Fold these 3 entries.
Entry 1:
Amino acid sequence: MGGVLAYDVWEHLLLDTQTGIAAIYNLDRERVRRAGKDLWKKYSLYCTGGRRGGKKIEREYWHRFNKELMISVPIEDYREITDRFIKPIKGMRNILLELKNRGLKLAICSDNTEFWFEKQKIKLGLDKILSSANFVLSSRVGVSKSSRSFAMLRVAINSLGINKESCLFIDDKARNIERALEYGIPSILFPSNSHRGASYLRAILTRMGII
């Protein structure tokens, strides 16, 4: 999701040198980085099973962030800033639509928090392209894509109802590509957060005869 369909959120949101939260509130960048990493580890693996609303978990996240940094920024201010960092990567939604129209099964396999995914899903209009059963998040299964147990990859494959050898995994992290290949899924490494990413992927999929 992040880096492929939409620009990564947490690090840019917190640490962008001009419009990130550290810059806006004149916070120590290293303290913000540490807090961000610690909270990412917790909330991207905060196993909800999809039963808890993203907004409630988002409030918890920012409450903990304020506590870690010993500040008292209103949660609504954080939400407003976050919305500016939820940006689809140009051209990627069109590729999803083309793949769907060709009858291909699609799934999102994302190391993500419940609340940031919810915002990305709305901006990309993913509900109109994929079934909710095909949204496979680390925050719902409790493990990441890079897990040595392959648990998250297995859930994604099962959501599609196909053999892993028939699937194509696309990710912007080399460690995730390596794990998918180790599990036996053909994979493509995507240029992370690239505005040319859609053109790159389209060229590959065209050469493969997929679109």
Entry 2:
Amino acid sequence: MRLRALLISLFLALPLVMGAQTPANPGPSEPDFTMVVQATFDAPTLAEFNKRVQDYAALRSRLEAGLPPLVVTTDADEIERFERGLTKRIRDARRSRRGQIFADTMKEQLKRMMAARVDPATIAAIMEDGPGEFDVDVNETYSKKYALATMPPNLLLLLPDLPKDLEYRFVGRHLVLRDARANMIVDEIPYAIRCGDCVISHDDEDDRPAVPAARPR
């Protein structure tokens, strides 16, 4: 009786032992469907970035109180009056320096992500669609004489979501965070993408050459 009970116990335990020791990919010719998750930003850095973005959005909402409400209009002067009023209030309430949104850890991790994910085709799209490079400063208006570059979808999917009316834009190789409501630069990362042979100045917009397949550096 004892022998029978022992044999039954061994029989029931055998599949568990065999299953625990079976390798994930037993044969080199068989596909391995193991999922590998590679995070772009570590959790503390992402949490700090999200907090700073939300704090800015809350500040803007408070400062917007009392301004004439901006309604849907085609009157450019009315839109600019609202933007100037809001920009002045924001400028008076925060410091004019980089790093208020993009902390050092966020800036470095974002640059590494760009170096790994930006291919020549993406760089070419940024250079062709964008305004070229010009001076941008935190808390300053984004001049409307320059185009707004469309963010490549493959990069936008990798970046953290933003509150309404905040957006990522490229100015040449520099990544800026723009407040579309105030038409103002909230923060910037100079040389977010490294590409020595893909620079187009805004002075060359009218006769810019076709962008070569640039080499990320």
Entry 3:
Amino acid sequence: MSNTTFRKHILLIVLSFGGFTSLARADSNGGLFVEPALTYENGSNSINFPSPLSDSSGNITGFGIGARVGFHLSDAFFAGIDARYAMPKFTDSSVSYDAKAVAFNWGPTVGLQMPGIGLRVWGTYVLDGYLDPEKSGNFDVKFEKATGTRFGAGFRILALSLNLEYQQVKYGQTDFEQIGPLPSGTTGSNTQLTNKTWIASVSFPMTF
């Protein structure tokens, strides 16, 4: 992924924070919240590569950032948009793929919380996203059109929340930028990556 695209994603998150913060200051009774997060993920991948390659498995681990932005509809219920950006390490067994990657996904989220106790639970439906590993050997692929779910629980202590989530995402399209004997620049909708990941995070809920 280029530095320009990386800066665009960071700018989008920063502008979202700034925009929602300004709205909240203009109307303190609006029930707005912003929750940036620092994340670490550790999970497994499975890929059904086309012939002559065989199906394979691998791992994905690394740090990232994220944010939820939305509304508290009551003291115990919240809803909004959840976006994640990560820079994990991607490995794959069948083609010895081992490279740094960038990943992004987003979707709507809803949750419940117990203000007096600090316990929180939520679920997110991933609407779109991508996973783009760097080139490794003679292979360079990009996985797109992510859909899936992410469920989590956390415990809020003063201004921070300690969280654990489970994410299962399927990438419905693979761009073969370079992959062994296959032609470069082709797209395969029959080649799909399924990613199952545990995500630990520290987030900073801010309500207005």
